[in-house]
Amino acid sequence: MTQFTEACALVRPIDSAGAGAAAEARTDRLTKPRGSLGRLEALGTQLAAIARTCPPPVPEHVAVCVFAGDHGVLAQGVSPWPREVTAQMVANFRAGGAAVTVLARQTGAEVVVVDVGVATPIPEPAPAPGPGSASGPGPRHSAAAIGSEPRLLRRNVRRGTADLATGPAMTREEAYAALDVGAGVAADALAVGAQMLVTGEMGIGNTTPAAALIAALTGAPAAEVTGRGTGIDDALLAHKTEVVRAAVARLTPGADLGAGSVADPIAALAEVGGLEIAALTGLIVGGAAAGVPVLLDGVIAASAALVACALVPDVRGYLIAGHLSAEPGASIALDHLGLEPLLSLNMRLGEGSGATLAIPLVQAAARILREMATFEDADVTEV
């Protein structure tokens, strides 16, 4: 068995009837009107069911796992950005200058960057300027000062996928290799104490394979799941949509795209997916196998979650949607999964940025159950 298949076998349903029910009962006894904390109450119940204990632990140690990969479909002109930007952004993550690294410092999370399919050499990050430099009076990034520089793991399966518009993006074996990378990263993060995993990614052009996977696994038409990504115009959006439609049609020959979803999620992943999407799928299953919450970011993570839940349905109970991406495929994927995002900020950056912003909400939901007094504890009259 591979690390990913072993993780699949370890996933079990969350404990809704036991710890989840106990959390619901405790929530109703807290010093507040019932339901007055809104969705934090349901989130706390889910965290208890995931942890199989009430009250649940507060996930203080959080790992944001950012997988990077390139895409052959960029040859179709689906994005105006060159593929070299993927490697450049990986260097920017390592230097602490990307949005997700800034937000991770804000929330106290660790960032791990994984090269699973970057096509070009990754440059070394530029050192942060010191005090008195031209860029300002102090260090550019506080990561160096607190010893939390993002780590880079080199787990490259292949130098970018093939062009999904002309054939399979990767082989089935390569898809499994990337799934193993993600499961391995999850296991490593959990082994050093991570209590929650956050999905992150980087890959120029990756909203195209994400849209294709969402269409393939939900049965939604390409026009409903394909978005503007980095901000393309109407003509390029129409072209990108046709690329997605034609690619998914290979998985369902002779059928309308909206008629149903593919039966083999691994086949879909290999045919129209991405290496970072496969690795995210492995991370999601690895987190569920270990019994920790997995906080999803945007449309790329949502496409990976669809694959994970199609393979192992019990994974669904461990998923928390951090935010609603502005990409249209995100809402379709989350609706299909039955997930309601915690935040809606019109974000579409990726990297794990939106999910990282939601970390304090998850921690607050657990802390409420652990630290808030009950009516009995506080000697408060209950109505």
Looking at CATH, which topology would you report?
A: Rossmann fold
Count of helical segments?
17
What is the top-level CATH class?
A: Alpha Beta
The largest pleated sheet is described as: 6 strands, parallel
Spell out the helices and strands N to C. Answer: HHHEHHEHEHEHHHHHEHEHHHH
Class based on secondary structure composition and strand pairing = alpha/beta
How would you explain this protein's 3D organization?
With about 375 residues, this protein is α/β, with parallel strands linked by helices. The protein has a single domain (about 60-360), classed as Nicotinate-nucleotide-dimethylbenzimidazole phosphoribosyltransferase (CobT), large domain (Rossmann fold), CATH 3.40.50.10210. It is built from 17 helices and 6 strands. Strands 3-2-1-4-5-6 form a 6-stranded parallel sheet, with helices on both faces. α13 links the parallel β5 (about 295) and β6 (about 320). α1 packs across α12 and α3 crosses α16 (about 360-370). It is globular and about 70 Å long. The protein starts with a helix and ends in a 5-residue tail after the last helix. Residues about 130-145 and about 255-260 have low confidence and may be disordered.
